[in-house]
Design goal:
Elements lengths: L3 E6 L6 H14 L4 E5 L5 H11 L8 H25 L3 E5 L2 H11 L4 H11 L7 E6 L2 H17 L12 H17 L4 E5 L4 H18 L3
Parallel strand pairs: 1-3, 1-4, 2-3, 4-5
């Protein structure tokens, strides 16, 4: 029986990582087998690609080269982690997928949606999420949280601040592209808006996920 593929999207600082952990724990308590992964990364090759893409010392990377690296990571993750887990009937929770690429490279880098969609068709084998949770917290607070977090990470010796160094206009384009994706695919993308407590957002996510799981036809 094929599993269920659930992705989380949103700006850095939107609370994705916290909500993924809480949802995974909830689903496991309900008796589900859960695989949690992230993009870029999640495989040995993917982690090397992630280091290159997110390190603020990576300079002069052409936007199309960046797009290609994102999908190289994604193809490896599908082959090595996501596809096998779905084949075993797992619920796969993935922190970012092609929507992030459309938002960040298509919107932020101004490549447009078309090259992202073409690359997805070529490299992802027709795999699309069954459900996407899009966390759209307040724009200014999300960006401030992301930059504070990456400053803390950098001082600990890990450098993943390349995207957070972009200006506000870049992130506005990302944010608006996420809204465009949600409006285009309302059956797949569940938008969780606003700044509320972690517990309140978790309850809303659980309600959405349980309803969709109940209707899932493998």
């Amino acid at each position: 029986m094929r599993g269920f593929f659930l992705t989380f999207e949103g700006l850095d600082g939107s609370g994705k990582s916290t909500q993924i952990r809480k949802l995974a724990a909830h689903l496991e308590r309900q008796g589900h087998t859960v695989t949690v992964t992230r993009q870029p990364g999640g495989t040995r090759i993917g982690d090397r690609i992630r280091a290159l893409l997110l390190d603020s010392r990576t300079e002069h990377l052409d936007p199309m080269a960046e797009l290609g690296l994102m999908f190289s990571d994604r193809a490896q993750a599908i082959a090595e982690v996501i596809g096998p887990a779905l084949d075993r009937g797992h619920i796969v929770l993935c922190d970012r997928f092609t929507d992030s690429t459309e938002a960040y490279q298509g919107g932020g880098r101004q490549l447009g949606s078309e090259p992202v969609v073409r690359m997805h068709q070529a490299m992802c084998g027709g795999l699309n999420p069954d459900l996407t949770i899009l966390l759209l917290a307040d724009f200014d607070r999300s960006l401030a949280r992301a930059r504070r977090r990456n400053h803390r990470v950098a001082t600990s010796g890990t450098n993943e601040g390349r995207f957070e160094s972009e200006d506000e206009a870049f992130y506005r384009r990302v944010y608006e592209k996420y809204r465009e994706i949600a409006a285009r695919e309302p059956a797949r993308v569940a938008v969780i808006e606003g700044d509320r407590t972690i517990a309140a957002i978790h309850r809303q996510i659980v309600a959405v996920v349980e309803a969709r799981l109940g209707a899932h036809q493998p």
